[in-house]
Specification:
By secondary structure, the protein is an alpha+beta fold. The protein has a single domain, classed as Peptide deformylase (Peptide Deformylase), CATH 3.90.45.10. The chain has three helices and seven strands. It has a five-stranded antiparallel β-sheet. β6 and β7 form a beta hairpin. The longest helix is centred in the C-terminal third of the chain and has 17 residues.
Length: about 170
C-alpha cells in the first residue's frame, strides 16, 4: 500500500470525472488499498474520492470510514444516488480545500445509494445525516465538483479571496 497525494484546490484535476469501473481487478484493488491507506493516515479525514487524488485516470471510487477508531471501512464503486428525501444545510470541509475552509452547503437529508463494494458485489443502502452528507460530497468529487461549487457566486468569491490569502501566507 502507498500514500497518495491529495490534490489541493484550485488544481484543475479536481474537475475530472471518475471513470466508471468495468471490472474489479488487481489494479482497482491496489487503488482502493492505497485510498484507504491515504484516508487512515490523513488527519481528520472521513472519506476520499479517487478524483481528489493524483491518479492518472481516476476511477469512480470513494472510500469512507466515519468510525472514531477507523474500523468500519466502506468502499463505493460506481456509486449513484437513486433516491433523495428531505434537506439539510450544514457546514462542510474538504481535504482538498485548504485554510480550514468550512461553509454551509445544502444537501439531501436522506439518500438511497446503489454501488458495488470493493469485491464487486452490488449493494444498496440508505443513509441519513452525516453519512448522507459525506456520500453526497464524495459523489460530487466523482462528478468533478467540490463543495465550493455549491456556494452562491458572492460567497464563492469571498471564500476564494480567503484561500488566496492563505496560500500567500503559507508559501
Amino acid at each position: 500500500m502507498a500514500m497518495l497525494k491529495i490534490l489541493q484546490y484550485p488544481n484543475p484535476k479536481l474537475k475530472r470525472r471518475g471513470k466508471k469501473v468495468a471490472k474489479i481487478d488487481d489494479n482497482i484493488r491496489k487503488i482502493i488499498a492505497d485510498m484507504f491507506e491515504t484516508l487512515y493516515n490523513s488527519e481528520n479525514c472521513a472519506a476520499l474520492a479517487a478524483c481528489q487524488l493524483d491518479l492518472a485516470d481516476p476511477p469512480h471510487i470513494t472510500v469512507i470510514d466515519l468510525s472514531p477508531d477507523k474500523t468500519q471501512p466502506m468502499c463505493l464503486v460506481n456509486g449513484e444516488i437513486i433516491a433523495r428525501e428531505g434537506e439539510m444545510h450544514e457546514e462542510e470541509g474538504c481535504m482538498s480545500v485548504p485554510a480550514s475552509t468550512f461553509e454551509k452547503v445544502k444537501r439531501s437529508h436522506k439518500i438511497k445509494v446503489r454501488a458495488l463494494d470493493q469485491e464487486g458485489k452490488p449493494q444498496e443502502f440508505e443513509a441519513e445525516g452525516y453519512l448522507a452528507k459525506c456520500v453526497q460530497h464524495e459523489l460530487d468529487h466523482l462528478d468533478g465538483r467540490i463543495f465550493l461549487d455549491r456556494l452562491s457566486s458572492l460567497k464563492r468569491k469571498l471564500v476564494d479571496k480567503r484561500i488566496t490569502k492563505w496560500y500567500r501566507q503559507h508559501d
